[in-house]
Amino acid sequence: MSATKIIALAAVLASTLGFAGLARNVSAQQTESQLAVNNRESTEIAQAIYGDGETDDDAEEQQETAKYQSLTKITFEQAKQAAEAAVGGKAKKVELENEDGNLVYEVEIGKKEVIVDAGNGKVLYTENEDREDDEATEANRPKSSIQVPYT
Predict the structure, then answer these.
(1) How does DSSP assign 19-65, residue by residue?
(2) pLDDT 10s digits, 12-58
(3) What is the DSSP secondary structure assignment for residue 102, as one 8-state letter?
(4) Structural contact between residues 70 and 103, judged by C-beta atoms closer than 8 angstroms
(5) 53 Ramachandran zone, left/alpha/beta (phi>0; psi -120 to 50)
(6) Residue 78 phi/psi, 5° resolution?
């Protein structure tokens, strides 16, 4: 084989290998950038589903309230009226809660929380926000007429 043919073959071989190496390098860069995009998308999806620890708490609470609202027999307004009549004063806040498997309305009046049965509107008990009850007291509290799975 002549020197010219060898040089030509070497040039073709070098250029072919060079292009293959370049193609691998470009492909690797595209793969890395695609991974970065996929990671960002996965993070955004996880935050939308599970929350980022700072947001979506209100949305989660609204979903829980909507889920339990269909089980109640009284309205927020009726719970508020029952609590105000039992304790006296004006309610600041009314929330539907799952308290250890008991579906209740928690009505805040002054420094008291009035717990109203979501099934029949009876005031089950009151507690002061300043004082934490012990486990024995909590275990002996009246139960709601509507029981739900504890979450």
Answers:
(1) HHHHHHHHHHHHHHHHHHHHHHHHHHHHHHHH--SSSSHHHHHHHHH
(2) 555 655 555 544 544 444 445 454 444 444 444 444 444 455 456 78
(3) E
(4) no
(5) left
(6) -65, -40
